[in-house]
Amino acid sequence: SHDVLGRTEGGDLRLVGLTKRYGSFTAVDDLSLTIPQGSFFALLGASGCGKTTTLRMISGLEDPTIGQIHLGDQEVTDLKPYRRPVNTVFQNYALFPHLDIYENVAFGLRRRGVKDVKTAVVDMLNLVELGHLAKRKPTQLSGGQQQRIALARALINQPQVLLLDEPLGALDLKLRRQMQIELKRIQTEVGLTFVHVTHDQEEAMTMADTIAVMNHGRIEQLGSPAELYENPATTFVANFLGQSNLIQAAVEGETDGVVTVSAHGQQLKLDAKRCRSTSGKIILGVRPEKVQIATDRADVPAGFNALTGGKVVDTSFIGVSTQYLVQMPSGEELSVFEQNTGRTIQRPGTEVVVYWDPSQGFGLEGTQDIEAG
Ligand code: ATP
């Protein structure tokens, strides 16, 4: 496909030791990160973790206290925002209400003194599939359409990096899902670096090639959506991306790549390759959808981990799956998502064995302060 933006070569976006302090409070803490050119990168984290501050430093709206920002072989740390080959799309669209859609998209080019804007504007409107609405005013557009126009208006400036600050936050769930797919399509088509800030793990997982999970101004873990989900490095990540059962365990030994631990007074196994700590107290994590329940111990496949003595305390039927909450004698609760395949649904009060394939568990460092999923 042709280069819709007609850009010059950019390069990787590199943040080096980026720190932002407000008085004695550190909002972004010694952040170093390389965002490869052309990737869809998500900064994911809870409110207040420093995502927006990081984005504002990249765009130049905020000066770092310490650190540098490089784009390709150019350092941009001290460049004014409008000198940087970077554009931002905000949650609130910020379209000009008195201009029609065509003129909104043309705005950046006109301001730079470009005379013949027609081809570029039409290309951009086609890219976001809204060419037929060129004569409308922003108020005559839906939220999703307005967000596409905001995107077209940013892309026409031929940035090397597009920053997206919770761009879908104002949309309802169904529209947000559609726009996630749409944004990913546009990013693939233009091949531009997108840096997307969100607190929504599903949104980050749907769109991003790489996710940086942020916590207290630092990167907790960096990786592809599948890596983060399958191999979370910390209990924070294990809970932030999806749900996890986190079970306090004590390592008993390791043989042939298999770690044996005890938990709830019973022996369980873990794949050593998926253990970040193999001595002392650890946390055994396992996703609810990797866990099953049975009323009879004999139904547990050979070699599987099994925890007995639990009781179903809650059952929710949600169509494709049934979710169980199983309480262990210690009071700790385990979450189980079972596909509905016509099996009997266990009622609250039923005593069950919770079991899973040992290769599906992961081991994390830590002993206490297990945050609830
Ligand atoms: P949200 O999703 O709520 O926007 P965020 O992860 O984007 O959260 P930031 O906006 O980057 O978080 O803010 C990080 C921290 O820095 C917050 O605790 C915030 O209160 C603080 N902060 C941000 N801007 C300022 C400022 N101008 N002065 C003082 N503190 C600030």
Q: Fill in the CATH topology of the largest domain.
A: Rossmann fold
Question: What sequence of helices (H) and strands (E) makes up the elements?
Answer: EEEHEEEHHHEHEHEEHHEEEEEEEEEE
Radius of gyration, CA atoms, in whole angstroms? 25 Å
Q: From the helix content, strand content and strand pairing, which structural class follows?
A: alpha+beta
Coarse morphology? elongated
InterPro entries: AAA+_ATPase, ABC_SmlMolc_Importer, ABC_transporter-like_ATP-bd, ABC_transporter-like_CS, Mo/tungstate-bd_C_term_dom, P-loop_NTPase, PotA-like, Transp-assoc_OB_typ2
Catalytic activity: ATP + H2O + polyamine-[polyamine-binding protein]Side 1 = ADP + phosphate + polyamineSide 2 + [polyamine-binding protein]Side 1
Domain ABC transporter: 13-241
GO molecular function: ABC-type polyamine transporter activity; ATP binding; ATP hydrolysis activity
List key phrases describing it.
single chain; 373 residues; alpha+beta; Rossmann fold; OB fold (Dihydrolipoamide Acetyltransferase, E2P); 2 domains; 6-stranded mixed sheet; 5-stranded antiparallel sheet; 8 helices; 20 strands; disordered N terminus; binds adenosine-5'-triphosphate; translocase
How would you describe what is shown here?
By secondary structure, this protein is α+β, with helices and mostly antiparallel strands. It has two domains: 13-235, Rossmann fold (3-Layer(aba) Sandwich), CATH 3.40.50.300; 236-365, Beta Barrel (OB fold (Dihydrolipoamide Acetyltransferase, E2P)). It is 21% helix and 35% strand. The strands form four sheets. It has a six-stranded mixed β-sheet, with helices on both faces. Strand 17 (321-327) and strand 18 (333-339) form a beta hairpin. The longest helix has 18 residues, at 173-190. The radius of gyration is 25 Å and the shape is elongated. It starts with 12 loop residues before the first strand and ends in an 8-residue tail after the last strand. Mean pLDDT is 91; it is low at 1-7. The structure holds adenosine-5'-triphosphate. Adenosine-5'-triphosphate binds at residues 22, 25, 27, 45, 47-53, 199. This is Spermidine/putrescine import ATP-binding protein PotA. Keywords: ATP-binding, Cell membrane, Membrane, Nucleotide-binding, Translocase, Transport. Residues 13-241 form the ABC transporter domain. It catalyses: ATP + H2O + polyamine-[polyamine-binding protein]Side 1 = ADP + phosphate + polyamineSide 2 + [polyamine-binding protein]Side 1.
